[in-house]
């Protein structure tokens, strides 16, 4: 593995990321295995509040590792606040982690069990930092909302994403994706676990306040299959078994 190249194989996967990114062996690396009975309730944590404006969605792209939907983050039209956050964090993008053909792809696990996929909505602290890049390496720079995807019935809104995948089949491809409100991808309950962690891929900065929702959303096997067919340069398999942690705090509102 040289330069910025990384993946999930034997020669460029998580087990050797530390060679180029020493922080991979840090104390706040993500993802983790969430063990609910080891989580502690913090009465100071309130509910999270999500205010998303569909007019802020810009485009959908394939970066070679995942399909990413980006948002206009020049102002506070789309933000997350409350919970463990001291101020609003602006939505920058969201992406999914799929497991590839026949594999379960969530990064976090719950008592060792993984889900079909995991959605990450990435927000940054625009109150303290001038740019997303600056925030991405700061201890309180990012807030990532993690949502598990479980298999079952069709998700009525996910088709808006899967229908667009054919337009971003290849690494580097990008197309307009306007008028999408990610609130449609949220479960009915916003109860969550939270902990201080890191980016789950290089450069692995320990800059993330993780907010992982307890309730998954349901998607069909067909929807998972369509996503699996998007050719990425890596297979996005779960890493939580290789970077687990028991030092976990959370709340149950």
TrEMBL record:
Its EC number is 4.2.1.1. It is an enzyme of class 4 (lyase). Belongs to the alpha-carbonic anhydrase family. One of its GO terms (cellular component) is cytoplasm. Gene3D superfamilies: Alpha carbonic anhydrase. Pfam families: Carb_anhydrase. Residues 4-253 form the Alpha-carbonic anhydrase domain. GO terms for biological process: regulation of intracellular pH. It comes from Scophthalmus maximus (Turbot). It comes from the Eukaryota. GO terms for molecular function: carbonate dehydratase activity; zinc ion binding. Reversible hydration of carbon dioxide. The gene is CA7. This is Carbonic anhydrase. It catalyses: hydrogencarbonate + H(+) = CO2 + H2O. Its cofactor is Zn(2+). Keywords: Lyase, Metal-binding, Zinc. The keyword Lipid metabolism does not apply.
């Amino acid at each position: 593995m040289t330069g910025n190249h990384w993946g999930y194989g034997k020669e460029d996967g998580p087990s050797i990321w530390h060679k180029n990114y020493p922080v991979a062996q840090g104390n706040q690396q993500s993802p983790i295995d969430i063990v609910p009975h080891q989580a502690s309730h913090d009465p100071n944590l309130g509910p999270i509040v999500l205010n998303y404006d569909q007019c802020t969605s810009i485009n959908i792209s394939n970066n070679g590792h995942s399909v990413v939907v980006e948002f206009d983050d020049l102002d506070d039209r789309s933000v997350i606040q409350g919970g463990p956050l001291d101020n609003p964090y602006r939505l920058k993008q969201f992406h999914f982690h799929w497991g590839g053909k026949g594999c379960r792809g969530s990064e976090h696990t719950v008592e060792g069990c993984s889900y079909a996929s995991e959605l990450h909505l990435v927000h940054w602290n625009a109150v303290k930092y001038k740019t997303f890049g600056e925030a991405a390496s700061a201890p309180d720079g990012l807030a990532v909302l993690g949502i598990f995807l479980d298999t079952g019935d069709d998700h009525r809104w996910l088709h808006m994403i899967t229908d667009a995948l054919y337009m971003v089949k290849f690494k580097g491809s990008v197309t307009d994706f306007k008028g999408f409100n990610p609130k449609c991808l949220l479960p009915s309950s916003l109860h969550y676990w939270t902990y201080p962690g890191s980016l789950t891929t290089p450069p692995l900065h320990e800059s993330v306040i993780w907010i992982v929702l307890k309730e998954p959303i349901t998607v069909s096997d067909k929807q998972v299959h369509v996503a699996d067919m998007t050719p990425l340069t890596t297979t996005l398999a779960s890493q939580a078994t290789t970077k687990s942690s028991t030092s976990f705090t959370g709340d149950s509102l």
